[in-house]
């Protein structure tokens, strides 16, 4: 019985059980795709990015590939930025469901779907049974229909019938919606409205290529008789709560400058017969970055040397759109007539095993099946492979040459040294000295790996390091030396919102906090509280980036701080505490472009564009551009403007250097008094490849009139 009461045996037994069941869970989760035994009711017709499925009998989510079957009682969900098209068939009946990002459904049968979250579009055709979509106690039946559904954060269900007919059965009774009608179902209330405005372009679900920071998108719709003013609404979600923009126009068209992302849009106007505002159906448009690809590796004119065996060459590039197709070509001539290697990939890398040394040229071609996405090619990258009598010495990777590193960060676990490896080297010797001639070597240690973490008592100052590659029977090859500096870090600088900022409360309650990172690879702890002593914390998170999105429960006063922490959680350097305030009466302004620390080349540009987004009502904006003059800022211009964009065309007034733009919104508070929000600023740099000068006045100075 003492085995059941002795703490040592009990703890050991519990740990063994924990390890046993954890191992079983790991093996189960990585055992490949789960098949399931339920009947197949459809398939994943197409997808973008990651689509997840959970079988009825499982607890683990798995990724679905295109054309994979979906089964009865499957749960399907889409992640941020992803889309899925599901196809269900039952004899002559077919249903196609398009799920937008962050959506979830439960498949109850081939003609029954449970809508859990997000937004989707459903198109049903054929006779026989109707498609039934349920959400809570609300059931929607479709027959030869095309509908869209979305849920708000407060779980209100929005239904729009684009064509056909939909029968809605809820605790409030039964309603039948026909083409160009919409309804909001919240609690026991069903509000039906007619939709008479017909959208023309862009088509629903259209993908548009983006080749710069933004693209001008032309929105059009059919004019309605008697409607004098239209309103275009753009948002990041189908419930029009996140990132809402509004544009007014007396014509059935609006041009909007949009950056990359998924947008939902609709048009509204006042019906002259009823005096009520009516809206169109909701459409979506996705802006995808589409710029010429760039080979990251090999670098231009890179030389791959070897002594006995020709090394394999690894090609690497960045992938902005996972659905893109890439074709890598390696040729023996710059005109690519003598192709030595050609292969396709979607993963962002390929490896080539060359047969002989020589000079080669590489390029990457990117294509897409999406309409309007033309083929793009990278610039040609020359490289060479050559045999050498002696092995090339190791190349130093980290720390970087001349890098400045925080002493406490370095000592807390980041003191890793790394360098290139070679087949000819049997071991390596790392040497660290206090002088560039290595007369005073502070540390020396050999290893078989191409990295090492020295056991050394680091102090502030400059250090020099090098690596010797040791070969069997033929001496060592010594790398060039590099230096790095260890210093005390400054405090973390909070960039947005700055101390004392006042703004409107975001409609979705989410605000993005930003700060400067003294250590780009470090770990940062972010705390948000209702009080300056942080006794009433609203959130605490740990991230490696320089920003984090937080949820603010209600308008009011908030306090926040950021600390750079060690892997064990010890605070290394901290920011001062900053406060900000949100209110329902003030608008919420979010600068979009130029972004923080952007580098903008003005060559071939006719203007410098400023964009921002606003939530809430405004009476205008105050925009100011400032130029850095040492420790001070000099104003370039300051204007009161309307709208959410501004084009600055006097580029000859700008020089290379650092700039800051500040934006404030004018509004009326609850008492009707005019107020202005505190300015929100973004810093960016201007690069001027071409020279600008003031325009010449061609009109004569004196004009004589008879």
UniProtKB/TrEMBL annotation:
Q: Give a single Pfam family match.
A: FecR
**Keyword Transmembrane helix recorded:** yes
Q: Which stretches are tagged as biased composition: Basic and acidic residues?
A: 507-518
- Residue ranges for the region (Disordered) are 496-518
Q: Which UniProt keywords apply?
A: Membrane, Transmembrane, Transmembrane helix
Checking InterPro entries in the record gives: FecR (IPR006860), Ig-like_fold (IPR013783)
Q: Does the keyword Transmembrane helix apply?
A: yes
Residue spans crossing the bilayer: 9-29
Question: FecR protein domain: which residues?
Answer: 74-166
Protein name in the entry: Transcriptional regulator
Q: Which organism is it from?
A: Leptospira fluminis
Q: What is the lineage of its organism?
A: Bacteria, Pseudomonadati, Spirochaetota, Spirochaetia, Leptospirales
């Amino acid at each position: 019985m003492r085995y059941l009461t002795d703490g040592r045996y009990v703890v050991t037994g519990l740990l063994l059980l924990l390890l046993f069941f954890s191992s079983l869970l790991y093996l189960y989760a990585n055992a490949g795709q789960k098949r399931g035994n339920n009947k197949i009711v459809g398939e994943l017709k197409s997808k973008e990015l990651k689509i997840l499925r959970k079988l009825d009998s499982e607890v683990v989510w798995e990724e679905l590939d295109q054309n994979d079957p979906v089964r009865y009682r499957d749960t399907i969900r889409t992640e941020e930025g992803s889309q899925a098209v599901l196809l269900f068939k039952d004899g002559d009946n077919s249903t196609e469901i398009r799920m937008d990002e962050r959506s979830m459904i439960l498949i109850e049968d081939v003609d029954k779907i449970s809508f859990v979250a997000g937004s989707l579009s459903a198109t049903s055709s054929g006779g026989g049974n109707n498609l039934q979509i349920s959400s809570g106690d609300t059931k929607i039946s479709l027959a030869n229909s095309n509908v869209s559904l979305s849920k708000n954060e407060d779980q209100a269900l929005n239904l729009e019938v684009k064509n056909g007919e939909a029968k809605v059965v809820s605790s409030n009774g039964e309603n039948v919606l026909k083409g160009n009608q919409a309804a909001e179902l919240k609690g026991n209330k069903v509000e039906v409205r007619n939709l008479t405005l017909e959208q023309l372009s862009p088509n629903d679900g259209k993908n548009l290529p983006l080749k710069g920071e933004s693209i001008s998108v032309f929105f059009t719709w059919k004019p309605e008789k008697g409607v004098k003013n239209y309103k275009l609404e753009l948002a990041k979600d189908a419930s029009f709560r996140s990132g809402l923009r509004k544009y007014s126009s007396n014509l059935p068209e609006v041009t909007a400058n949009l950056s990359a992302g998924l947008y939902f849009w609709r048009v509204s106007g006042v019906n002259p017969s009823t005096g009520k505002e009516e809206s169109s159906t909701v459409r979506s448009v996705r802006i995808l970055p589409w710029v010429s690809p760039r080979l990251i590796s090999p670098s231009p004119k890179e030389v791959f040397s070897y002594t006995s065996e020709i090394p394999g060459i690894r090609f690497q590039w960045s992938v902005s759109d996972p659905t893109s197709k890439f074709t890598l070509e390696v040729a023996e001539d710059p005109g690519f007539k003598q192709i030595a290697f050609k292969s396709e990939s979607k993963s962002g890398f390929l490896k080539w095993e060359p047969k002989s040394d020589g000079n080669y040229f590489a390029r990457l071609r990117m294509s897409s099946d999406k309409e309007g996405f033309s083929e793009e090619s990278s610039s040609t990258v020359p490289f060479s492979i050559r045999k050498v009598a002696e092995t090339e010495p190791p190349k130093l990777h980290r720390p970087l040459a001349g890098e400045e590193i925080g002493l406490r960060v370095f000592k807390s676990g980041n003191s890793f040294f790394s360098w290139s490896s070679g087949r000819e080297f049997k071991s390596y010797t790392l040497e660290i000295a206090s002088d560039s001639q290595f007369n005073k070597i502070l540390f020396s240690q050999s290893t078989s790996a191409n990295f090492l973490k020295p056991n050394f008592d680091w102090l502030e100052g400059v250090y020099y390091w090098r690596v010797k590659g040791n070969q069997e029977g033929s001496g060592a090859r010594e790398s060039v030396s590099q230096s790095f500096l260890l210093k005390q870090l400054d405090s973390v600088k909070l960039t947005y919102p700055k101390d004392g900022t006042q703004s409107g409360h975001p409609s979705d309650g989410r605000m993005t906090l930003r700060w400067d990172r003294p250590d780009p690879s470090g770990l940062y702890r972010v705390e948000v509280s209702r009080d300056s002593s942080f006794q009433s914390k609203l959130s605490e998170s740990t991230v490696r980036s320089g920003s984090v999105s937080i949820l603010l429960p209600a308008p009011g006063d908030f306090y926040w701080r950021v600390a750079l922490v060690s892997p064990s959680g010890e605070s290394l350097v901290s920011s001062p505490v900053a406060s900000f305030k949100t209110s329902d009466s003030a608008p919420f302004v979010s600068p979009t472009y130029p972004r923080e620390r952007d580098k903008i080349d003005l060559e071939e540009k006719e203007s410098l564009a400023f964009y921002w987004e606003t939530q809430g009502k405004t009476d205008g904006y105050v925009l100011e551009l400032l130029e850095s003059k040492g420790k001070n800022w000099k104003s370039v211009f300051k204007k009161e403007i309307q709208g959410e964009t501004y084009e600055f065309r006097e580029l000859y007034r700008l020089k290379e250097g650092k700039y800051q733009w500040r934006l404030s919104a004018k509004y009326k508070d609850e008492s009707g008094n005019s107020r202005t929000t505190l300015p929100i600023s973004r810093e960016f740099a201007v690069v001027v490849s071409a020279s600008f000068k003031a325009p010449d006045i061609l009109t004569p100075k004196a004009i004589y009139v008879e």
